[in-house]
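User: For my dataset I need records formatted as: sequence, then C-alpha cells, nothing else. Please produce one.
Assistant:
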Amino acid sequence: MSDHLSSLLARLQQAADPELARQMAAYMKNRFVFFGIKKPEREVLTKEFIKSSRQIPVSDLLAMVYDLYDQTERECHYIAISLLERNYRRFTYKDFQMMYPLIDREAWWDSVDALRKPMSLWVKEQRQYLDEVMHRLLAADSFWQRRVAITLQLLWKEQTDTAWLERAILQNRHDEEFFIQKAIGWALRDYSKTNPDWVRSFLQRHELSRLAVREASKYV
C-alpha cells in the first residue's frame, strides 16, 4: 500500500463517527462496516487525494483501487470507485477490464450502480468496445454483472444502442431476481425520456414482470 493511501486511511479513521457508522450500517442492512462519514464530508476529505490521482501511473492507480477494496469500511469502496470515475479517460481496454471483477467485490446495489458509471462513461467514448463489453457482461452468471449490462447505457439518450438495450432486457426478463427486474424498469424508464414511442412499443410487444412494467411506465 502506498504512503499516499495510508495517509488517507489515517485521516478517515480520525474522522470516524461510531454512532453514524451504526446508522449507515443499519441502512445497508448491516452488510458492511462503515467509518461513519457521510458523502459530503468524505468528498472534502478525499478531494486532494482524488485530484492528485491523475498524476499517478495507471498501473499504480489500479493497484490503489484494489487496495481500497481490500479495506473493511464501505467508504473505501466508494473512494475506489471515485478514483475510477476521475481517471476513466486514461484507461486502455486492458485497464478497463480490471473493473469487471470489482462488480462482484462486496457487491450490493450501492457499489454496483456506482461502478457502472465509470464503466458506462468509458464505453460511451470507446464505442468500438460496446459489443465486447455487452457480450461479456450478459454472459456472466453474476446477476450484478448482468444488471450492469442492462443499465450500462443510462443517460446515453440519443446515443443509446437500442438493439443492445432490447437484447439485454429480453435475455434477463424471466430472471426473478429483484435487482434484475428493477434494472429492466430503470433502463426503460430512463430511455423513455428520450424515445417514449420506442419504449411504449417495446412494452406492447414483450411480456415483462409487473415490477419492470411499473418502473418502466412512469413517463409513458
